[in-house]
Amino acid sequence: MSELSVNHLLGIKYLNEEDIELIFKTADHFKEVINRPIKKVPSLRDITIANLFFENSTRTRLSFELAEKRLSADVVNFSAASSSVKKGETLIDTVNNILSMKVDMVVMRHPNPGAGIFLSRHVKASIINAGDGAHEHPTQALLDSYSIRERLGGVAGKKVVIVGDILHSRVALSNIFALKLQGAEVKVCGPKTLLPKHIESLGVSVETNLKKALEWCDVANMLRVQNERMDISYFPSTREYSQQFQLNKKLLESLNKEIVVMHPGPINRGVEITSDVADAENAIILDQVQNGVAVRMAVIYLLASKINR
Amino acid sequence: MGQRILLNADEINIILHRLACQLVENHTDFKDTVIIGIQPRGVFLAERIIKILQEEYEITDLNYGHLDITFYRDDFRRGEKPLEANKTKIDFIVEDKKVVFIDDVLYTGRSIRAALTAVQSFGRPAEIELLSLIDRRFSRHLPIQPDYNGRQVDAINEEKVKVNWKENDGEDVVYLVSK
Which GO terms describe its molecular function (chain A) (predicted)? Predict the structure, then answer.
């Protein structure tokens, strides 16, 4: 079997097409495992994984922890709020202290872009980026593509629109890389203030009219407005944002076709998406969550198999 | 590298019929029995035996699945290459069932050790038996023996037993390959 071309998962940018295919093929097996009466395999018995979360997370953290435990790895959790980071310790010191307790792999979320890359150059452990600032969130993009592949039979040639706060979104950037790598067409849609300049250079098209974007697409990935990352006001009011960029039933029904609706969570119901759309049959939001565990198991398994070899 | 034929198509055919007959002797109607082919190569053997059971003994109501043991192996991170997984397909519960593992070659016994662990994910079987086409005796690392055995072979560690199936490799034949 081929193996991953990388020793860390820092971003989709560093992967190639074969890596993604290998991760998905492996995830298929783990999806079968997590639907068994006993949802656990002993592969990673001798691997210890530290989950370092310097930023809040529920879904991603839970998903990683479940993935690790279902592979039988030992898991230690760390969150910045209750740690010595508050006392002024540097990132490298924190991580090296944890590694000296014989940890093989680090899953890290950090508010600063590039934190994972920095760490991979300075510590001896396999690093998985679970989100670094507004840079990348590779496992989210992988599980999004995996979910599209599951629902539509493939990603190549599919038209995907990413709607919302593209500027502050690591999910958007990782998704653009992943989808382009697999041969999908990608469009981004949102208020001009939330679309980065020169985003076209990534090979995506830009649309500011949601209805037009939806008429074009097979899949709509609705992103949350990241109020916590906004230091200034990017649009007049939440109400105005909703009027222009909310996915609601009326808009969906006006399309004369079925599209797949995705959301990486957490959902702000009534802002970027309405409840009736989020809970409808063609929304695969909860499939995304389930696939997240299988995809993360695959990533951890494939990276762990490269440790010390 | 030389190879010699251990079993030809006719011999394999006779052995398959004997093995099927022995299974019927012990399991009669297969009501509480499930047959599990060990991925990847045990599946071909399992399907052959099932075909005989269905066509010649008219046992139609068979529970049959395949089990992949990759994630249960004890050599993770010890080989040159990562281990490649195969599909597991067990859509029944093995709780209180008599399980028959089917694999083509029994060598060190480590695969079967992994399979014994893996099958527990699907319940607690009443008992587990092992059927293998080739038993490389004197090569075992673990105290595991077959209950149904095609042919015993004395092969040294440098030699490899290769089982080819018509549906996959073009012919039914078992080779002993020396490096």
Answer: amino acid binding; aspartate carbamoyltransferase activity
